Amino acid sequence: MSTDHILVAVFDAARVRFFEYKRARGRLDPILAEVSSGLHHDRRDIETDKPGRGFSSGGQHHAYESEHDPRKLEKHDFVKAIAGAVEAALDRHKFNKLVIVAPSRSVGEFRGVASGKVKATLWREVPKELAGLSDTELQNHLVPILQVPDV
User: Fold this and answer.
1) Residue 52: pLDDT band by 50, 70, 90 thresholds?
2) Does an H or E element contain 60, and which?
3) Whose CA is closest to 102, among 72, 78, 68, 125?
4) What is the CA radius of gyration of the chain?
5) Which of 22, 53, 94, 149 is least surrounded, with the fewest CB atoms within 10 Å of its CB?
6) Mean pLDDT across 57-81
């Protein structure tokens, strides 16, 4: 495999797009169409029941809060699915370097769920919210960053 086979994953909590970047051409080429996480739905669609009720020592009624925010869990599961898709591509020898472009929190979450072999291919992290940009806008933002020589 060429040492110039770079996978670029651009994502946020709601969508992901994958690109191939070749330094010699200085271009991002889309690999797959955008994949949505389904987070555009209403929070009430994922919270099926009302919280339980309880009593305080003074006889007051109160609602129990959920221990986990369902939307945060969905976001976490989506980032985990992205890491799984990246690992599957790595297992198929589709790339040997990885660039992730996502908001800072998502970059950290990706590092937390990615396997060691995926982390070993991580070449660049771009902690920016760019998932909503068009392919042309991404090209203009990312290619200058990706052309910076390795230190």
Assistant:
1) low
2) none
3) 125
4) 20
5) 149
6) 74
What is the reported pLDDT for 145?
A: 92
Look at 30-34, 86-90, 99-103 and tell me which has the smallest mean pLDDT.
30-34
**119 belongs to a structural domain:** yes
pTM value? 0.77
Secondary structure of residue 130 in the 3-state scheme: coil
Give the CATH number of the domain where residue 92 resides.
Answer: 3.30.420.60
- The Cα 42–Cα 44 span in angstroms is 5
Taking residue 105's Cβ as centre, other Cβ atoms within 10 Å add up to 13
Q: What is the pLDDT of residue 46?
A: 47
Residues 6+ apart with CB under 8 A from 126: 99, 100, 101, 102, 142, 145
75 phi and psi, to 5 degrees? Answer: -60, -45
Report CA torsion sign: 140, 142, 147, 149. Answer: positive
Neighbours of 3 (CB within 10 A): 8
Mean pLDDT, range 110-116, rounded to an integer: 97
- Residue 67 in this model has a pLDDT that exceeds 70: no
56 domain-assigned: yes
Closest CA to 8 of 148, 146, 150, 151: 146
